[in-house]
Amino acid sequence: MPRPDGRKASELRPVTFIRGFTQNAPGSVLIQCGNTHVLCTACFEPGVPKWKAGSGSGWCTAEYDMLPGSTSTRKPRNRGRIDGRTQEIQRLIGRSLRAVIDLAALGENSLLIDCDVIQADGGTRTASISGAYVAAYDAVEAARADGLLDRSPFNDAVAAISVGIVGGKSLLDLNYAEDLEAEVDMNVVMTGKGGFIEVQGTGERGTFDRPTLDRLLQLAARGIRQLTTLQRSALKGSKGK
To answer: Alpha-carbon distance 76 to 47, whole Å?
Structure first.
């Protein structure tokens, strides 16, 4: 069965990183993965949470949300109470970034990441991670230019992608229609050097065996290598829409 958008099974949706999308945050990126669009901003601020004060090392944390008009039916805003899905995703984004950051190199400073989904068509958490890295990298470079950091705390890149089994076929980068029909759904986060940070796999409509798991991880690794290349190219380019 052909994919809804005509892609091959191992093909990413078109991906773009628009750096400097907003003018106030030192790091801001609009990541577009097909029809999923996420605005990722990153701010470098002095100080750390109370529980890290005096440790000599920094912190990186993230917030995530979906704007009301991002889905086909209006999604109410999170007002004072974060739902479980939102909390899970923003913790995942924070963990993913911290895995490639030397917190000691930050000093007692914080990197604060915000990921706001403007338009959702599947893969919002994975797009947020891939975009957040580019935004955070720009925020760090701005801090270095201002003399707030001696060196970059990043020791690698980080990107994420979804894979799954739909109609018995292994697919890369599921859109919303495919995600709804998936027998197996998986989100994979990896470093640029190929190390796994997190694997979230669920048998939505049945179980899966080890060969299937291996096949999906290989497919995800292929997609993340492509994303890492796109991140690198974006960071070498100029900022702006």
So the answer is: 32
* Residue 150 · residue 181 · CB < 8 Å: no
Q: pLDDT of 173-220, one tens digit each?
A: 999 999 999 999 999 999 999 999 999 999 988 889 999 999 999 999
Residue-wise pLDDT tens digits, 145-174: 999 999 999 999 999 999 999 999 999 999
Assigned token pair, 4: 């809804």
- Distance between CA atoms of 190 and 195, rounded to whole angstroms? 5
Distance separating alpha carbons of residues 225 and 241, to the nearest angstrom:
25
- By the 8 A CB rule, do 115 and 63 touch? yes
Distance, CA of 59 to CA of 50 (rounded, Å):
11
Closest to 186 measured CA to CA, from 195, 170, 194, 177: 170
pTM (global) more than 0.70: yes
Q: How confident is the model at residue 83 (pLDDT cuts 50, 70, 90)?
A: confident
Beta pairing partners, 66 = 117
How many other CB atoms are there within 10 angstroms of residue 113's CB atom? 28
Q: What is the 3-state secondary structure (H, E, C) of the chain?
A: CCCCCCCCCCCCCCEEEEECCCCCCCEEEEEEECCEEEEEEEEEEECCCHHHCCCCCCEEEEEEEECHHHCCCCCCCCCCCCCHHHHHHHHHHHHHHHCCECHHHHCCEEEEEEEEEEECCCCHHHHHHHHHHHHHHHHHHHHHHCCCCCCCCECCCEEEEEEEEECCEEEECCCHHHHHHCCEEEEEEEECCCCEEEEEEEECCCCCCHHHHHHHHHHHHHHHHHHHHHHHHHHHCCCCC
